[in-house]
Prior knowledge:
Layout: E1 13-17, H1 18-23, H2 34-40, H3 49-80, E2 90-96, H4 102-113, E3 122-126, H5 134-139, H6 154-165, E4 171-177, E5 182-191, E6 196-200, E7 226-231, H7 234-250, H8 268-291, E8 300-304, E9 310-316
Parallel strand pairs: 2-6, 2-7, 3-6, 7-8
Antiparallel strand pairs: 1-9, 4-5, 8-9
Helix pairs in contact: 3-4, 7-8
Amino acid sequence: xxxxxxxxGLSPFRSFSREKWAKLRAxxxxxxxxxxxxxxxxxxxxxSLDEVAEIYLPLSRLLSLYVEASxxxxxxxxxxxxGLSGKVPYIIGMGGSVAVGKSTTARILRKLLARWPNHPKxxxxxxxxxxxxxxxxxxxxxxxxxxxxxSYNVSHLLRVxxxxxxxxxxxxxxxxxxxxxxxSPVETVRFDQPDILIVEGINVLQVGTPPADGEAVxxxxxxxxxxxxxxxRAEILREWYVERFFRLRETAFQDPESYxxxxxxxxxxETHKTANQIWDTINLVNLRENVQPTRHRADLILxxxxxxxxxxxxxxxx
Length: 318
């Protein structure tokens, strides 16, 4: 019987404590005010200025170096190909569980990156807009699988990413209404040759099973130049989800037009029970089956602790 190989100590990632990562900021200036950070924070994720300085400024510095190198390579390749014109954006994918703080991180990173001189135009694309409309999900019996890979119009998302990556102008994408819990039938967002595009979504790092015949099957992550996964333990994610559900009950759910208005009058006990039930039957299942397994496909992992602050950073080795 062959001995199992010893893989202890083998990892494609370099690990950084919060303190070591913070030092990589070097002399990068703080370009966000405390008020701006507060405005960029989410409903359940209040990011401090210290968190921006110690975690996101070093990350923006690293990404700026990557973008600059990519721009240089693009120019050299254009010369090699005979001076073909065009502009190709640097695409950053950002994945992670529901309630982990992806949207807040994406907004902060977008603002920081836009203030570097060599890539001032930074756009954000959320994959929620590519969920199938509720009518389609109901027809297919997938309303309780919303957010799972099969609930997305992946072919549409791939076309949009392909057009943006090819440097096309005025690429339109659908918009998701969190108030109505559905894709807007009329609203769209337009992308016009950004320097950087951040693509944020639960399952952006997922891949399927390659076909046996070797046919090319594109995945969303094929269009990424760099990818980030925001990580936290499942029991912590549950707490954050329940906390967010309580806040939504007092805010967005109060709107009579809200899809979840029926939850606005729940008691605390009913709210706690409902939030945990939704987490257990939908979000936790999706996390275990589809989201968490993609963690180690990322180029960088931000691991959070109970207070929503990043405790450790893992950067893929070059």
